[in-house]
Queue: 3 jobs
Job 1
Amino acid sequence: MLLNAVLCVWNEEDVIAATVRHAFAQGCTDVFIVDNASSDGTVAAAEAAGAVLAAAFDSKYFNEDLKVTYLNEVVRRWNEQHNPESAWWLFADADEFPALDGGLRILDFLEGLDPAIRGVQGYLFNHLPTHQPYLAPGRHPADFMPLCSKTWGGKVPLLRYDRGRPHLWSIGGAHDVVTHGEALPVVQDALQIHHFPHRKPGEQHLPG
């Protein structure tokens, strides 16, 4: 069973190392980042944590279509070059920490799935800062923001790509998938996607 992760980042120096380490702890073999012209130490922090800079682009404003194109191209190109029989990919934002109940690793969960399953869905749990410090570089943000509430913002961040089948096109921040007409059996409500969009009370971090 093979699991990789791909993240788009923009000025995430305060959280990216924890995000990358979390992905490895969940069983990812490789963690790839796509950098949207970060002006801080995001890329260096991600690489120090073990991530690989797979692509970079610049946009004056946040461009979802461009982001989607780069993320999917990283996955498509890697699958084409390595040609595994199948590979799971985790699509995540730099401030998202997907996890399962009971501490089960995502990789171990995937190994127990019916072979027909090709996607895993979950809901966002938004965390809010309540007191200082709000974050510390390299630390998991849940150490400082343990309180959260479940939203009904569903995502399908885990997709399985199979040799000889069309590329699954993850879109809208992993909220939807273009399947080219193929059936996509999905496990529903399996993931808890812990989300840390607020770096300070009342301030939301938005992609660039």
Job 2
Amino acid sequence: MDKIFLSPPHMSGKEQEYIKNVFDSNYITSLGEYVNKFEDITKTTTKAKNALALINGTAAIHLALRVLGVGEGDVVLTSSFTFIGSVSSILYQKATPVFIDSNENWNICPNLVEDAIKKYKPKALILTHLYGQMAHIEEIVTICRKAGVYVIEDAAESLGATLNGKHSGTFGDFGVFSFNGNKILTTSGGGMLVSDNEKWIQEAKFLSTQAKEDHIWYEHETYGYNYRMSNVLAAIGLAQMEVLEDRVFKKRQIFSWYQEFLEGNITFMPEIANSKGNRWLTTLTFEDKNIFDVIDVLNKNGIESRPLWKPMHMQPVFKSSERIVNGVSEKLFQKGICLPSGTVLEKEDVKRIANLINNI
């Protein structure tokens, strides 16, 4: 049988048509109509006022920090239970990360955020909407606004998720989406920076194209980066964004199938009130199974799975970093697993995976 991957790309069928148009136009670099169209459809879909297509989500977070003036000596609070891409840009700016643990919904804990603001006087917070599920973003933005702390939403995993009908990535000062190969939509590699502040997005755009001044020659008053998305990748992105609603529906359907078929003492990642996650990955914890036994059995049957994120405060590279922890993310790492959630899966595939797990 074919290998079942964790979250493989799923093309809509329009990608090659749009790529052909790009090649016919010969605008294959970072200029062209599909870059504009991809940004426009992102704004239309998420209701963000401004959008900037970039090479990846990490670059988007980096630009957000740079535009907000975060630099050496500044403290940036960040989710501990996340992927390192949420954190590495803090180091690019020579700022200091402080890791904040999770609450019962697995996302960053608002109470710990409030404690950390009082203790560390941060300039910004990077908040992850983990595994496609909304964090308590409204409460956290309110806390940060009162303290004058900028909020960057890492919505890399949560494109299409909403809270009270408002899209992830549009609550804070900046939002960041990822189009990596394993995300709900993919451009093979890519990212998007969104904000309601047009001036900030224009500054980020300037920095993303090597900070070239408006002269016929190359003139630079500051340094920038080569972070702009190509027209080729944007063409793929447009075709992908056109099917976002279908992909979210299928991801949530796959989650419901796991709920139907899995047995035993398990807990799925919860969904907070008035939210609708995209269920990018179906994630859960076992009380009566060793996750590495489960991963091993699935792997022997050609099925990819993975432990939950190892918290950043447990990573060797951050062993000396400040943190406010409560043990939640450490327990989740010990007991949690990500199951195959690709939108190419059928109900019988999920049933087979569940039966293998149930028999361990």
Job 3
Amino acid sequence: MNATLRPIKTKAELGLAEQFAAAGPTLPGGPAISKLRTVAFDRFAAAGLPHSRVEAWKYTDLRRLMADAKPLACAPDAAARAGAAGTGSLFTGLGFRRLVIVDGSFIPELSDLADVESGLTIQTMASAFARDDFVQAQRLSPAADGGVAVSLNAALAADGVAIEIAPGTKVERPIHLAFVTTTESAAFVKSLVVIGDSARATLVESHEGPDGCGYQVNSLLELLVGDRSVVEHIKVIQEGDAALHVGTLLATVGAQAVVRKFGLVTGGAVVRNELTLRLAGEGATVAAHGASLLAGRQHADTTLLVDHQAPHGESREIFKAVIDDEARAVFQGKITVQPGAQKTDGKMMARGLLLSDTAEFDCKPELEIFADDVQCGHGSTTGALDGELKFYLQARGIPEKQAEALLIHAFVGEVFETVAHDGSRDALLAAMTAWLDGRG
């Protein structure tokens, strides 16, 4: 007699199943979207929450870290909207076009929708779900495109922002997507940015919420970049100290296009950032950089796939982590070169700076090459502050904490300097300085 082993469902998995059963019929979209949602959730249900025996989640056991499933976020009331109005101070005064998403819902009255440039279209994702052409163009991240986080997002996302930039359009004002959570709930939010050929734009994401509130965020951004376009994407995670944040970027880059990506993590109890960058067109260029500044018992995981699918692609990735107390930083990076993607040039580096004996940095860089005329390499380093340099600074009258701050700034500042937009770079450097000043 053969016994069938059935995995025991966790409280969180059971809660997600109940939520999808209750909310699924009310989520926006026609029959085609509803079918996609069902397929996506079935895919999640078959796999369950990932655990440490799943290679891609080796260092981030979500089955253990996600104790339960918070109730799905409701449309924010007047109090929640009022509280969200004053958020996003990091980029205040920089002239960005601010689009506000509160508890997973796009809020037009809090957003800057005046004098929208010619060639720029902004709408809610809820209304975009009703458009058949979105399904026909496969712009809704079907269940087969990505892992567990993408499947859950495809099943449960109700709103977000859909942005289209017409070919040849240069969007002068950076677009700021400000995601704010106000309640102990689960927000599933999907955004789409479609950039036409020969266009230029700067896109900024910020994620924040209150401390002491165990909310959950599953955020997905799909970025489709046309040929010869130039795009800079910046993402800042300053979630509350009890928050769980799972974020996904799916980017497809056209021929001769340039995409610059920067990410900063300073907040959140558990953060998982998944980035898939597909260089789909010949001569595409991607530069991805990031920094994690962690303390306490924070856990931040950056998992990156750079997929070279066409010849003459170039990619550069540098990620740095500064880890204090009992915090843990993870970097998993893979460069894949597909058959036929000859003349690929890809380089990846990850570095961790440990500020305490209990801090941890886990790094797993990989290369997967199926072409024979390429230049690819990766590396990783981990260490502590240089004691001699610290003594040198202190011997010249600089206090210990200030000396450490100077050395940390010298270590991590390199990646901040890769941000092309001046105002954004200054704001990010200010955020780093504030984190350094906040160390005990």
